[in-house]
Fold these 3 entries.
Entry 1:
Amino acid sequence: MILLSVIREADVVVVGAGNAAMCAAFAARDAGASVIVLERAPEAECGGNSAFTGGATRFAFRNVDEVREVLDLTEDEVAITDFGTYTEEEFLEDMGRCTQYRCDPDLTEIFVRESRATLAWMKSKGVRFDPMWARQSQKIDGRIRFYAGLICATWGAGQGLVESLHKIAKKNAIPVLYETAATGLIREDGAVRGVVAETNGEPIRIGARAVVLACGGFESNAEMRARYLGPNWDLAKVRGTRFNMGDGIRMALDAGAMPFGHWSGAHAVGWDMNAPPFGEREIGDLFQKHSYPYGIMVNANGERFVDEGADFRNFTYAKYGVEVLKQPGMFAWQIFDSKVNHLLRHEYQIKKITKAEAPTLEGLVEKLEGVNTARCLETIAQYNKAVRQDVPFNPVVLDGRGTAGLAVPKSNWANVLDTPPFHAYAVTCGITFTFGGVRVSPGAAVQSVAGRDIPGLYAAGEMVGGLFYFNYPSGTGLVSGAVFGRIAGTQAGKHAREHAKRSGVSEERR
Ligand SMILES: Cc1cc2nc3c(=O)[nH]c(=O)nc-3n(C[C@H](O)[C@H](O)[C@H](O)COP(=O)(O)OP(=O)(O)OC[C@H]3O[C@@H](n4cnc5c(N)ncnc54)[C@H](O)[C@@H]3O)c2cc1C
């Protein structure tokens, strides 16, 4: 038996210090529990993938009053803006459509129906949300119109979110132990009673009445990516943290948890070809290149391989990284002309970018490294001929301005590539997070293979399986993590109190 060097205790131990974990910690504290948070990363790199996000956060709303439960808006902003509506039914339908109707109906319904209330709760704790003017709206006929149901992001994007969450933790005296990685669960009589962790190479034991695992998926782990996602996934760039090694999933499975969800699936996007192997915090999500609906994408053979305008980018970007991974050499070039410059997202303006530009299409295609030049020019010529110019272009609706007669169609926002200078951007596959995880109950309790709650064990965030399959509507990672984090923390806190009562520990002693 190993003699562990330090022993600490809390009612609830939360493993991870990203969005889901911190929401769990706050909720457990609200439920009257003492809480310790464990973070594998050093303080400067804390917050997991949550810190790398653009902070986009999807929630259901029926009118501007409901929008205002989350966003602080001036009367002037309300007057000039059309937020539209995004009902729970629309949110549920987007989840169903994106996941090929495989998402778990009960879990999905919970996070959709709790989305607005949970963001309002975060706001009440001190997290600020702002309208996504730059990324999700366009000025049309003098009014600002939002589209695709996504209107809001955390202030300061992911870094701002994580800073706020950690400030709130400090204010509430919730300790975060940095550089402390949970390595196993302590179990007594079938119940989870704490974790074994490693800090500075030393094993420690932290006793608890309940544990919330919120320590991400296995996206940072090349071996697990290859094992579960398949060939070449070990070569994908990781968009975010290097610390999500699948530890939480492994610990839960070791404790008898039921594997659940799309284990061979992941959220992955077109990501700068020359981006570093893991995310860079100063760049955040800006290595992504998400304006492809306004241009075309070609592979090494000089051929198009997806319908760039199949839907708003919010509903295609998370599955198109997989399509790029499948192309020869695992890369693609996105090609635009200057007509659409004003529509390109701000990630096309950063300095660290793999870009080619030329005054002619011939000159541009010559510069596309690794691409069959002759075939690419043919592809562009065929595409240009196929654009339906009788239909007006409108970027805030599915405008139906597609192509006619191409083997790989483009369904919306097709424009002839004819306005110099022409520009192109090289992307490869960047993995965001993995979809496979463990099964949780509606109360976020981790379920065993026998279908029962494992006493004292809860999970939230990326490691919850059953929400995403094949694809993902943008802005749902943070909100689903927040909803299940809050539920997990509340239930873990209650469980801890009940356990303390049963063990005869007085309130004062706790
Ligand atoms: C570049 C990028 C952009 C994104 N943009 C958005 C967006 O705009 N909107 C959106 O909704 N989603 C976005 N996402 C997805 C989003 O980041 C995730 O869905 C969400 O942040 C997951 O939260 P989480 O708390 O489950 O995991 P994380 O935030 O990754 O937190 C996991 C935590 O666990 C810690 N950890 C791991 N192993 C251990 C261990 N053994 N012991 C202790 N701690 C451990 C990690 O260090 C980290 O603190 C984006 C992701 C990336 C990478």
Entry 2:
Amino acid sequence: MNAPIISVRGLEARYGDSSILRDIDLDIRPHEVSVILGSSGCGKTTLLKNILRLEQPFAGSVKYWGEELTDMHEIRYQEVLKRFGVLFQGSALLNSLPVYDNIAIPLEQHTRLSQRVIDRLVREKLHLVRLDGAIYHLPSELSGGMKKRAALARAIVLDPEILFCDEPTSGLDPLTALALDELLLDLKSKLDMTIVVVTHELASIQRLADRIFFIDNGALIFSGTPAEAQKAGLDTIDHFFEAGRFD
Ligand SMILES: Nc1ncnc2c1ncn2[C@@H]1O[C@H](COP(=O)(O)OP(=O)(O)OP(=O)(O)O)[C@@H](O)[C@H]1O
Ligand SMILES: [Mg+2]
């Protein structure tokens, strides 16, 4: 099997005194879509933040191509961060700026490209997410699905090696969700991206997942393919697949 891009071992995540995740071991394999599943509040966003070091893990190790991330020097860490695209839960666009600037900002901050090249890249990425028409709109003038696509364009503007998406389709109608999932599969095949998705949507899991990580009560209770998940004989997982949701 391919060496993992990201390898997590013994990760413990806390906020203050409360332990959210314990003993998490998982590997993110290149060119796969890994889906993180679990009930609301179980710690999926926390897991992403700890992997990305946006929150400092309380214990354990997170390696990027074998290089420890958790205590990496700040300068090296900033370099590595550029290889990661992140679509935050809730989009996190800058509301006072048009879509164009929201997407140009990472290029202006992290590259020395000319305005002309930046302009071309912004338009290219907006075209990829089919938002050409909304380039000068403010985020407040976009629908929920358009906001997610704008945030996706921003997340991929530096051509990341790994794209982390926190609930990219939640709150969208099934057809818009389908279009967004197809966009993610396009990025995987055309740009060879490795994708990590947090989602609750059964349809999205079926469309996207090469591998599933299932979190319950602060622990990783399953990792494997969707077919293996259905045969694992775990009540929480069976219930999720039967109900299509968590109660
Ligand atoms: N910044 C924070 N400070 C303190 N507690 C937090 C913080 N962020 C999250 N938590 C707590 O950590 C737990 C896990 O939250 P997290 O956002 O990771 O869940 P989630 O699985 O992403 O949920 P959802 O599916 O609703 O997005 C929750 O109990 C939450 O209240
Ligand atoms: Mg979350």
Entry 3:
Amino acid sequence: MSNWLIYRGEGDPDPDRIGDLPPPPPWRAFTGEPIGLPVPGPDSSTKRRLGGRPLLPVQDEDAIQLINAALYLRRPLLVTGEPGSGKSTLAHAVAQELGLGRVLQWSVVSRTELKQGLYEYDAIGRLQDAQLSRERGAGEGDIGEYIKLGPLGTALLPSERPRVLLIDELDKSDIDLPNDLLNVLEEGEFRIPELERTAKREGHAPVTVLDDDGRSVPVVDGKVRCRAFPFVVMTSNGERDFPRPLLRRCIRLNLEPPRDERLAALVYAHFGEGAHEANRDLLESFSRGDDEGLRPTDELLNAIFLTQHTAREAGSRRDGIARLLMRPLEQHPQQR
Ligand SMILES: Nc1ncnc2c1ncn2[C@@H]1O[C@H](COP(=O)(O)OP(=O)(O)OP(=O)(O)O)[C@@H](O)[C@H]1O
Ligand SMILES: [Mg+2]
């Protein structure tokens, strides 16, 4: 295996390997002052998605090269592919193998605006508290208590190791979001005008705000500027095209749904040793169905899980259950 690869898709976590990542190209170097924040450990969603066992080393070489290109070039990775091809899970796989901790997740819907990803300011809560404090003759709370960074805002905090940020289903956004996002990802920084105003009035002491991990973090002069550019995975089911300026700034990866050895590796990751052999019939019939239409991986995983339970019964309907569950997405269970 060529040794320029930082992420190898081998599954076994190696948190030291990210230290071998060379400095960025000069046009992607960022200079945020580090604030000494430790990276929070992975949460349960990574284990749930990856199955808790290291993935067997089955390569999809193009995908692995493109993931590394995004890491080296400090560019977001735009991942397209059919539903269930593993787009969202890819962010978790990289975080787990490289020891990059909890994946920051921003799920996009049509109403999502850039600001929600960056930070939220609870102006009404602040007003109410100020009124209560006045009535009690107490002083006003600090403005930082009313500001919470979103997943994108947190990913851009100046950390020494890159955070992993999943911007999920970007193609569901309204037309402006991809363009707005473009500027922030290009500059690696953003401003919080509410804090900039305070800094002008009250001096340049850091203000403590909450981040997406629930930690208190300092922000100076209302500016957040990244240091290690985050590993950003943006996923799309291809429901619409993105503006070319965004495409130009991303590394683009189209994921094929896992088949054969890679599918067997996923079965191992979720069900352990021996599961592949024990369910060879299901794996084969799942792969045979490819000509009938799209079958997402989840259908196979669900079928294996259920047939493990039905197998305990005499005269079990293993085949029947599997046939009901493993169907092309467009087909209803009643259709034959
Ligand atoms: N590296 C992996 N290790 C273990 N399981 C995986 C891996 N990649 C994908 N899977 C499993 O495959 C299934 C589909 O993956 P995922 O949800 O990431 O697909 P997706 O492309 O994001 O789908 P959608 O477009 O519907 O959101 C999940 O059940 C996930 O647990
Ligand atoms: Mg997904």
